[in-house]
Amino acid sequence: MMMMLPTQFQDHRHVWVYIELEESQVNPVSIELLGEGRKLADKLGAQLAGVVMGPPKGGGGGPALEEAFAYGADLVYLVESQLLTNYRNEPYTKALTDLVTIHKPEILLLGATTLGRDLAGSVATSLKTGLTADCTELNIDSDGSLAATRPTFGGSLLCTIYTLSSRPQMATVRPRVMSMPERQTKPVGRIIRHELTMVEEEIATKVIGFLADNRSDRPDLAKADVVVGCGLGIGAAINLKHVGALARTIGGEMGCTRPLVQKGWASSFRQIGQTGVTIRPKLYIAAGISGAVQHRVGAEGADLIIAINNDPHAPIFDFAHVGVVADAHRLLPALTKAFSRL
Amino acid sequence: MHIVVCIKQVPDSTQIRVHPVTNTIMRQGVPTIINPYDLFALEEALRLRDLFALEEARWLRDPSRGKVTVVTMGPPMAAQALRKALTYGADRAVLVTDRRFAGSDTLATSFALSCAIAKIGERFGPPDIIFTGKQTIDGDTAQVGPGIAKCLNIQQLTYIKRVTRIDHLRRSIDVERCLEGGTQFIESKMPCLITMLDGLNTIRRGSIDESLRAARSSILTWGVADLGVRDVDKFGLKGSPTVVKRVFAPAPRAQKSVQLGTANKTVRHVADELVAWISSHQPKLADGPLSKPGA
Ligand SMILES: Cc1cc2nc3c(=O)[nH]c(=O)nc-3n(C[C@H](O)[C@H](O)[C@H](O)COP(=O)(O)OP(=O)(O)OC[C@H]3O[C@@H](n4cnc5c(N)ncnc54)[C@H](O)[C@@H]3O)c2cc1C
Ligand SMILES: Cc1cc2nc3c(=O)[nH]c(=O)nc-3n(C[C@H](O)[C@H](O)[C@H](O)COP(=O)(O)OP(=O)(O)OC[C@H]3O[C@@H](n4cnc5c(N)ncnc54)[C@H](O)[C@@H]3O)c2cc1C
């Protein structure tokens, strides 16, 4: 597919990653994207830039800059303004759209988080450019364009999408889909500051409060190193206690399939899959789960998948590393005991 | 109060099958449904309309002013989805259909829908709130809501759990928004676009009256020519910067899984075998996460 890019796009050169901040901490998805962005920039012979936006930090721009450089950015675009204290769509969209219009990146990547999706949709529409959602693979094609691959039809197929007629080529990527790059000790790179030309009166939205979730009823599955998941094969809600016991014994979080959420056996924060959380633990034990594609796409990034199912033909055995044909009701308590003996 | 709800007709993906040999989607005979997420948006819109009608009836004795208009862009058969929405209690329905809309990506879709909403505004009064679902179950991008808001240049409020207050005089609206770490309380201005979160309400069962009305109602049908846009290259395939180049099946894992546990072993035996396997194959795991169990 050779296609000459219209000449007005030829000054679009570099790869940008939007660096998402949570209370001035860098969201890990942005670091995963810096790792991915670095590879793309190297293939293009281009530079990698981070975009940091937030309230003024009194000079340095805060730890986000250090992180951006440590994970491979050559330069950082920094927009600091009191108006950027809490995320609000209007000032963030204005700041990012202006930056892109002035500095013309070739590729712009954002995390597919609540913030990232809110921002990416507005920015892409403002710029009248293409945006590919929830990519699982990013590559540079032989003609230099971005090949963005994403699951379709609930993960049963993949499709590769290109943005041909406009720039930048934008894509979002879900947390934990790309692997975490190595941190480097690298001298600080170039910082380019940009002023936000907007006043509070132009912004219709006010954040009037925030109520943090109770940590205990909102597990952070996406960040867990060990996850014990269960599906309808556990039979009844009462059997969740065996799953919980194993998870506690091995220091993991409990996850589940969608039907368990629909039955009200587990909270939706525990649902793994296409319409739930993507996990990337070191160990995933899946008990009584058939392995439907919608579940698989959220779980297959695990380093080691152990599946327990009493049906030797269950599709989960197609992507598990270790399969155990057994009755989960009996094996789970036995496993809890076996691990306790370690 | 005038509320517009965007709904999309989608294949019922619980019934989609992939052809085992050709790896293509077998769409034949797959029933279509209203995108399930859009029903949460529709219900919130109907609830607000009814609440408003009560208020109006009390103050102005005019319960007629709240209206919900549903709109969809799709092939002619998408009229079914609109008809269904009318049976739930929507007041009027608009089908945006034209072959020149085919192949739209989210930018072209947002543009077409925003033109249709602008026209709905001219015909029936400007909307105060536009609702979309959080995302669809087929394209699944969650980009169309923000796209429409930007095309219409109004506020977007994404991932909204509920609308808690509307002040008609000040044209302000309070909403609860779901973030990764908790709930954000936001005050904004109308008109605005809300993408509605799932699971916090249930679509009502329409009354018999509504079913009868739905069967009688006519659905407005608009094509490209009705939207009053000169530059038709902004629609459909031509107006879509993204291009799907390739559709393919995920590669199967090269290695088959290791099978442990056979019928004649006790569970204790199988459990020990599994733990031993982990320790020998993934020593880092046994020394790392698994060696420091939680409380
Ligand atoms: C649009 C859409 C989005 C979806 N998103 C998600 C999602 O994000 N996450 C998700 O998980 N699902 C999702 N689903 C649902 C998905 O398609 C499957 O229906 C679901 O994952 C199946 O859950 P399950 O494995 O628990 O149940 P089942 O498919 O019923 O499997 C139960 C398994 O347990 C085994 N079993 C039975 N008894 C025992 C026993 N005693 N011991 C051991 N094994 C036993 C059975 O052999 C079977 O394999 C989605 C569906 C749709 C349409
Ligand atoms: C497999 C697949 C992958 C795709 N990937 C991309 C991609 O990465 N980038 C891209 O730009 N396009 C993509 N598209 C095209 C995109 O799906 C279409 O543009 C579609 O018209 C709208 O996008 P969506 O289904 O993702 O809607 P979403 O943005 O997920 O929908 C959000 C809400 O917008 C409203 N809405 C959406 N469509 C309509 C409609 N036609 N009529 C009325 N209301 C509507 C509904 O309320 C819905 O809940 C893809 C399509 C497919 C089939």
From TrEMBL, chain B:
This protein's UniProt keywords: Electron transport, Nitrogen fixation, Plasmid, Transport
Q: Which domain of life is it from?
A: Bacteria
In terms of InterPro entries, this protein maps to: ET-Flavoprotein_bsu_CS, ETF_a/b_N, ETF_b, ETF_beta_N, Rossmann-like_a/b/a_fold
GO molecular function ontology, one term from the record: electron transfer activity
* UniProt key word Transport: yes
Q: Which residues form the Electron transfer flavoprotein alpha/beta-subunit N-terminal domain?
A: 22-231
Protein family (similarity comment) = Belongs to the ETF beta-subunit/FixA family.
Subunit architecture: FixA and FixB form a heterodimer.
PANTHER family noted in UniProt: ELECTRON TRANSFER FLAVOPROTEIN BETA-SUBUNIT, PROTEIN FIXA
General function of this protein: May play a role in a redox process involved in nitrogen fixation.
Q: What is this protein called?
A: Protein FixA
